[in-house]
């Protein structure tokens, strides 16, 4: 008996069964646009506004699947399914897409936000969570209070354009928290410029179609001398690493001199043995927490100011609460916040109404999975439609598209929970093991900012401003910035500026 002759049809049968089973599985993919043969739905996959639209849920339901050059993309359109997949099955859905250009060359897998699910990510995650826990962030209150006052003074003397002041403010806070640097005077500061450039480089590399290597992974093996993109990313990895390390070395120098001020960088250096991170890994982790916090905070502040211009009644109610609790003799402090439920509700509403990343940072499935009869292949990019989930009328009411902090208050005027299992009352900080570890810093910054700015001034459109305010403009990809607008800050009482300056002196 010839074993090869016997084995050949058996192998063929097995292969046939495998193909048939695979075809059967892929016929059970979640519903979605069909796209074109071979290339798939390239146009829609690159349009975050189209993907995040409520119309997509009407068209396809809670899950929408599309493919681009064979890469599956799954958009999750409901909180129920997002929790089921990203939290209850977090062992499968905590990975990130491969992002060859960014992860393997521009950052060499050292960017915590995009690091794949594994040992390095776990070593990054622990210090990030512990370094920005609820108890630790209390040490950052003086930084946030000082910067809130500085922003109020800047806007009080501002001529309509607020963008530069808000950006300087957000980056200055994060720089102080991470490296204990003194306040940054301008958004043109070289440190800020370098970090913003890095964020923009990463954003460019992540744009769909920016690098062919994402479609043809074999291109990663092309020698650098024949691949300009490869030389570019490798060069900037070295430059970025040197900059990150110089900033952290300043913290190490201070510690060596006995200067031990609370900062995330100092925490990593003092606990190097505990966290098992190399000096380069430490430097990249601190910088990544900085990059993630600065851009999203400034974007949320921009959306909040836009909301105030369109909803003057919100300012009136906030002013009344501040007048009753704080009065006119001093600016508010963190100690006042427990007695300012409307301000705290405003923080929740700002984060709910205008998430800086409406489709979140993409997850990826690390194994084949079945969900309610639908097949989700290994390696699928998973996008939680946070903007849509945050505006679910069954949770947030029929006015969910409007900015209304009162939705977070009960009949006694106290802050209430609106989402089961979500203390913050929205999903803008993400899901599962990939939830934002800096969320407590973000909430604290926004709370003291809102309280201080509204205590000192009211915001209105300048005289002669034309056109309607665009309350729902949406960036095609990446961070969702509002359309530029003009905003006039008017002091609420004559002594406001003097009292702000006196309070700022306490932090010098």
TrEMBL record:
Family of the protein in this entry: Belongs to the cytochrome P450 family.
Native organism: Lactarius akahatsu
Origin: domain of life: Eukaryota
KW Oxidoreductase (keyword) present: yes
Signal peptide limits: 1-24
Pfam families recorded: p450
Cofactor: heme
Keywords linked to the UniProt accession: Heme, Iron, Metal-binding, Monooxygenase, Oxidoreductase, Signal
Residue numbers binding heme: 436
Taxonomic classification: Eukaryota, Fungi, Dikarya, Basidiomycota, Agaricomycotina
Full protein name: Cytochrome P450
GO molecular function, one term: heme binding
Pathway this chain belongs to: Secondary metabolite biosynthesis
InterPro entries per record: Cyt_P450, Cyt_P450_CS, Cyt_P450_E_grp-I, Cyt_P450_sf, Cytochrome_P450_fung
């Amino acid at each position: 008996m010839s074993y090869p002759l016997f084995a050949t049809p058996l192998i063929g049968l097995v292969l046939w069964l495998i193909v048939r089973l695979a075809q059967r599985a892929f016929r059970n993919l979640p519903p979605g646009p069909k796209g074109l043969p071979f290339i798939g739905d390239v146009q829609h996959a690159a349009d975050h506004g189209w993907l995040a639209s409520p119309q997509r849920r009407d068209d396809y339901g809670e899950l929408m699947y599309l493919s681009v050059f064979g890469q599956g993309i799954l958009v999750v359109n409901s909180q129920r399914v997002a929790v089921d997949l990203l939290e209850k099955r977090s062992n499968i859905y905590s990975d990130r897409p491969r992002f060859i250009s960014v992860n393997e060359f521009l950052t060499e897998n050292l960017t915590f936000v995009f690091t794949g699910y594994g040992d390095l990510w776990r070593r990054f995650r622990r210090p990030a969570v512990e370094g920005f826990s609820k108890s630790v962030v209390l040490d950052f209150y003086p930084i946030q209070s000082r910067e809130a006052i500085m922003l109020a003074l800047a806007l009080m003397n501002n001529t309509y354009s607020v963008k530069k002041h808000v950006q300087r403010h957000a980056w200055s806070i994060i720089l102080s928290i991470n490296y204990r640097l003194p306040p940054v005077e301008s958004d043109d500061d070289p440190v800020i410029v370098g970090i913003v450039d890095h964020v923009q480089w990463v954003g460019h590399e992540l744009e769909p179609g920016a690098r062919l290597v994402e479609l043809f992974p074999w291109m990663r093996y092309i020698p650098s001398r024949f691949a300009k993109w490869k030389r570019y990313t490798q060069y900037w990895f070295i430059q970025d690493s040197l900059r990150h390390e110089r900033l952290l070395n300043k913290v190490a120098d201070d510690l060596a001199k006995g200067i031990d001020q609370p900062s995330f960088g100092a925490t990593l250096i003092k606990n190097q043995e505990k966290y098992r991170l190399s000096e380069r890994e430490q430097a990249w982790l601190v910088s990544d927490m900085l990059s993630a916090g600065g851009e999203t905070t400034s974007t949320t502040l921009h959306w909040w100011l836009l909301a105030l211009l369109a909803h003057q009644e919100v300012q009136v109610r906030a002013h009344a609460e501040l007048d009753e609790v704080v009065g006119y003799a001093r600016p508010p402090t963190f100690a006042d916040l427990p007695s300012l439920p409307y301000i705290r509700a405003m923080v929740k509403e700002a984060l709910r109404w205008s998430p800086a990343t409406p489709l979140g940072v993409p997850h990826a499935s690390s194994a084949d999975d079945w969900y309610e009869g639908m097949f989700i292949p290994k390696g699928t990019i998973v996008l939680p439609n946070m903007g849509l989930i945050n505006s679910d009328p069954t949770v947030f009411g029929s006015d969910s598209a409007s900015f209304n902090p009162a939705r977070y208050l009960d009949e006694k005027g106290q802050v209430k929970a609106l989402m089961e299992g979500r203390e913050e009352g929205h999903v803008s900080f993400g899901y599962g093991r990939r939830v934002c570890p800096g969320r407590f810093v973000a909430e604290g910054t926004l709370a003291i900012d809102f309280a201080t700015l509204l205590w000192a001034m009211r915001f209105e459109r300048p005289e002669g401003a034309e056109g309607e305010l665009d309350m729902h403009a949406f960036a095609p990809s990446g961070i969702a910035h509002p359309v530029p607008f003009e905003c006039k800050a008017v002091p609420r009482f004559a002594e406001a500026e003097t009292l702000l300056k006196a309070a700022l002196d306490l932090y010098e």
